[in-house]
Amino acid sequence: MISQRDFQVLSNLVRRDVSSRFKGSFFGIGWALLTPLLTLSVFTLMFGSVFGVKWAAAGANQNHSVGFFALALFCGLMFFNFYAEVLSKSTGAILNNATFVKKIVFPIEILPAVVTGSAMVQLGISLAVLLVFTLIITGSLSLYILLAPLTIVPFVLLVQGIAWVLASLGVYFRDISQMIGPVLTASMFLSPMFTPRTSMPEWLRPWVVLNPLTVPIENFRAVVLMDTLPSWWALAAYFCVALIVALLGRLFFEKTRGGFADVI
């Protein structure tokens, strides 16, 4: 359990990380809003208009419109961008903060959490953008949106567990950071980000289910766009897995942290 003092340190570091990311740029933190909008526009133009990709899923009232495709795609992009940012940055969470690591009283376990917290800021902004455009395109917001946190919280928990592991491995195995790119590419295309799982080949679906992005993306779309309840058994199973990954990730970090100062 994080103490109030450690939480304050974590909050300050997240705030510093977010502000430093946009420091000196013309639009400043406005890029946190512009980036998802530009990404959404490009993907919608290419897949929805140029290639004519349509979203065909049960319960999608407007599944043949480019606007609905954009919303469905953006739901997936939200989760993937968060996942990609945390995984790519967590490998350097300890290496890039050697000064903190060598301070005896500093709680270094919060350094990977800073990466996650910073990514959550962007996730929150993207969520706000999605809700606004959902209201504009569909004309209403489903009450099931109130269940959206049930799809987001376990996902963040699982990713945090992975972040602790990668932060530790990044200290001892510097090549780990080079492996993240291919892993993220595979994760993106082996997920229901561009098309529903039901539209994928039969042989591919079991592998897609194993992707940590699949359950949160599908159930988030269900409550936000499809106006349906999420799959409770899938969320329950995912939460259990996320909790185990988070606990094992933290345990792995604690077991390996003793040699950080010597290696760095």
From TrEMBL:
GO terms for biological process: lipopolysaccharide transport; polysaccharide transport. The chain crosses the membrane at residues 25-46, 66-84, 104-137, 143-167, 179-195, 232-253. GO terms for molecular function: ABC-type transporter activity. GO terms for cellular component: ATP-binding cassette (ABC) transporter complex. Residues 27-256 form the ABC transmembrane type-2 domain. InterPro entries: ABC2_TM, ABC2_TM_bact-type, ABC_2_transport. It is a multi-pass membrane protein. It is found in: Cell inner membrane; Cell membrane. It holds the Pfam family ABC2_membrane. Keywords: Capsule biogenesis/degradation, Cell membrane, Membrane, Polysaccharide transport, Sugar transport, Transmembrane, Transmembrane helix, Transport. PANTHER family: CAPSULE POLYSACCHARIDE EXPORT INNER-MEMBRANE PROTEIN CTRC, INNER MEMBRANE TRANSPORT PERMEASE. Belongs to the ABC-2 integral membrane protein family. This is Transport permease protein. It comes from Mesorhizobium ciceri biovar biserrulae (strain HAMBI 2942 / LMG 23838 / WSM1271).
